[in-house]
Amino acid sequence: MKQKAFGVIQSYYKHSPVYGGVFYACFFSMHTRIDIVLCGQQSEEEFLLVVDAIYDRLCQIEKLGNCYDADSELAQLNQFAAIRPQPVSHELYNMLAFCVDCNARTNGHFDITVHSTDYTPDLISKVQLSPKERTLFFQHPGININLSGFLKGYALESIRDLLRSYEVKDALVNMGNSSVLALGKHPLIDGWRVGFGQNVVSQNQEQEILLKDECLTISGNNSFERKHIIIPNSGKLVEGKWAVAVVTKSGAVGEVLSTALFAADARQWKSIKEEFSPRLVLKLV
């Protein structure tokens, strides 16, 4: 167990002469539990350095894009961008540009302005990003950008880059049982087998899937009472206890896609899926 500035990393390491080292760690970050399995020839100390780097990176991402943290860069932009154009860090600017682009690609079903005061479906058109100056300006008062439906997927891609830099080829990263990155393979099988917990897929589908160099992202309601995703076209919350699971190469794309499909009706699924080409889409009940 290792104490960090804002929490505790718990870890366990076991070495096999056949398979090498297997390292497990867990900690809380981004308002959820993070579980990590790393496999390879690295020592326990080397794997712990990797997990430390992941922890620190997630803290950085939160300080960029957590709109509920008054000191984050995004919260400051939400406060002042309607007054005058605000300079934006390179990383956050790229996040915002990607999310605005995905609004069009999902026919409006992924919308980072949906939590704004007096929201309308065309409000996102009032978000002015200037690439040359790298600034953000709200052309309408009351706009509030919320990246909650995107940050974990973005974090998975950042973790992927970190693992590559530390030469970790086989890893499983689970963020809150809703955003999963699977790299390489488990020591005993060619990939990582992942189940859906208490959720059930349709009877003609396996209740677990094999992931390899892919991401699994789930968006939905885990109870009839917990409704938190807004349908942009109507401004109403999605009803019912169900969820959408998607398998994609990119965690950022998966987060956008699962959110958009959950907010869309069945008639719109086909065009959204064709835009992003996921390997798999499942409805969980």
TrEMBL record:
Cofactor: Mg(2+)
Enzyme class, spelled out: transferase
Pfam families with a match to the protein in the record: ApbE
GO cellular component: plasma membrane
Topology of this chain in the membrane: Lipid-anchor
EC number of this enzyme: 2.7.1.180
SUPFAM superfamilies for this protein: ApbE-like (SSF143631)
MF GO annotations: metal ion binding; transferase activity
Protein's cellular compartments: Cell inner membrane
Catalytically driven reaction(s): L-threonyl-[protein] + FAD = FMN-L-threonyl-[protein] + AMP + H(+)
Coiled-coil ranges per UniProt: none
Keywords: Cell inner membrane, Cell membrane, FAD, Flavoprotein, Lipoprotein, Magnesium, Membrane, Metal-binding, Transferase
Main function: Flavin transferase that catalyzes the transfer of the FMN moiety of FAD and its covalent binding to the hydroxyl group of a threonine residue in a target flavoprotein.
Protein family per UniProt: Belongs to the ApbE family.
Protein's recorded name: FAD:protein FMN transferase
Native species: Bacteroides eggerthii
